[in-house]
Amino acid sequence: MAVNKAEDIPVFLYEGTNRRGQKVKGEMPSKNMALAKAVLRKQGVNVTTIRQKSKNPLEFLTKKKISPMDIAIFTRQLATMMKAGVPLVQSFEIVAEGLDNPSMREVVLGIKGEVEGGNTFAGALRKYPQYFDDLFCSLVASGEQSGALETMLDRVAIYKEKSELLKMKIKKAMKYPTAVIIVALVVTIILMVKVVPVFSELFSSFGAELPAFTQMVVDMSKWMQAYWFVLVGVIVLVIGAFREANKRSEKFRDFIDRSVLKLPIFGDLVYKAIIARFARTLATTFAAGVPLIDALESTAGATGNVVYRKATMQIREDVSTGQQLQFSMRSTNVFPSMAIQMVAIGEESGALDAMLDKVATHFENEVDNAVDGLTSLMEPLIMAILGVLVGGLVVAMYLPIFQMGSVI
Fold first, then answer.
1. Mean residue pLDDT across the chain
2. What is the DSSP secondary-structure string of 27-81?
3. Based on CB atoms within 10 Å of each CB, which residue in 71, 307, 369, 399 is the most buried?
4. Which helix (H) or strand (E) is 402 found in, with range?
5. pLDDT digits over 372-397, tens only?
6. What is the DSSP track for 365-381?
7. Hey, which residues does 15 pair with through a beta bridge?
8. Helices marked H in 288-391 — which ranges?
């Protein structure tokens, strides 16, 4: 039994500097991260990074990624625990036990170790910038300083849940038509490479001239059989070039952002989602006691579109000179009248956060309705595309047979 207990003690990998300022690293078995850091501190090691060693050497191959929804769930559960009066450190333990994602559980326990070691909650979150952005950390820090952490966590949880739900709705609208069109293209390619050649051999035995439409399809089939690798190469090259340009070129990203807003069907959906995100972020930060100028700076990054990011930064500059928010928003010419009027009412009544929250809720509902309408609209459009692609091939292949029948 003693051996099993020893095996259950986690091992922590650490890096730091000793009393002479030399870099050191190694392993430290301990019951938890805070105890390991305390022991290393007594040994004269100033720890810079420390993490729990994985027991499975192949874990990186099967390790589940942490999604934004995992962060939203963690925030909601932690807010619920703290509202129930459970201490922060104990809340971490309870939440970690209930998480299905091992990677998220490891992060929560890491945050717990940091807090036990004397770090603030916001400071512990900043150790994981890939999961907790500046807005999240700033709101938590504001809650800690004001002594209302449980209230702030509840607001952050609502913000994360609404934001992720909005993203899921947009993805839902995009995924369905994209998936169907890809399947249609794959089926068309298979028909062109495998089925059309069989008909082509049959037609060549007739010795008669093929209809123009059928001849075109046969020629395309021959080209795809001979140069399929060129087609695949072009597709891969275009996708790769798009991803690289999107990653490296700010001008290209700005061009995409502007172009998306001009799309005939999806543009309106993206527009409403941006307005909802703008209002939700500004409402959450302003309600948290963040000054309006700082709240606008955080909101600019959360809009997710260069047009509204620049517009928000322009609003920030105008507000910093003493101009009212409603007039600043109106001067950008990118915000809807309804949102501007609600902001005006909020400024006059002193309930700006409540009015912004109503604007966010309204446009989130608009996005929901737009997604449902878009799905209904796309179904007949997709059927038409499938009919043109697959039905066109079928007609092209049977057209010579029909002509022969009419001659006979």
1. 82
2. EEE-SSHHHHHHHHHHTT-EEEEEEEPPS-TTHHHHPPPPPHHHHHHHHHHHHHH
3. 71
4. helix 392-407
5. 777 777 778 778 877 887 788 888 88
6. HHHHHHHHHHHHHHHHH
7. 25, 49
8. 292-302, 306-320, 325-332, 337-349, 352-386
